[in-house]
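Example record for the data management plan.
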Amino acid sequence: MFQYCPKCASQRIKFEQGKVFRCPDCGFVYYHNTAAATGCIIVVPDNAAAPPASADAAGQQFTGQQLTGQRLLFLVRGKEPATGKLDLPGGFVDPNEGALEGLYRELREEIGWAPPVAENTPLENIFTLFASFPNVYPYKNVSYNTCDLYFYVVAPGLREQELCLEKAEITGIRLLKPEEINYEDFAFTSTQKAVRTFIKNIALS
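Corresponding structural encoding:
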């Protein structure tokens, strides 16, 4: 990432242990630390007549064979990396944000929807964390190591026409039943692992 030391312009700067830049001439040190990122599995009924989503229904927990008659919402990426591949709504956590606040913001930005939250209800009562995997996100010749945190939320009655996609980044959505999912279509290995984990260990446990 650095060909010259940002402090003294030395060409002797080195990248060590896959995570730290050190300059032997001026002592500059920069840790290229892991970034936090989120993804959310949104489960919606396979029923156009389902009642609208409500704050009471959001955050519902799964028990038993609960993916019967349900679909999972995926985004079609509209930019690199992995243009045209499937992804989950979510993204990087901004400075001074917690993971849940970052996820809620990303949902609003990417799809124009987030689960209804009753006044004074903490977000940890709405979203359920179920997995975390490492990932590498290449962007403009820089590879960002990320720690991807995966959550799920139940969205009864959510309809495609309610969504307002961030057109610069998303070209469409797919509402897929578990048996319709092709895991090779996912943009990132971490997302593929998360969806497999959700279907095997959470929704169908």
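Summary line stored alongside the record: Residues 48-57, 61-65 have pLDDT under 50 and may be disordered.
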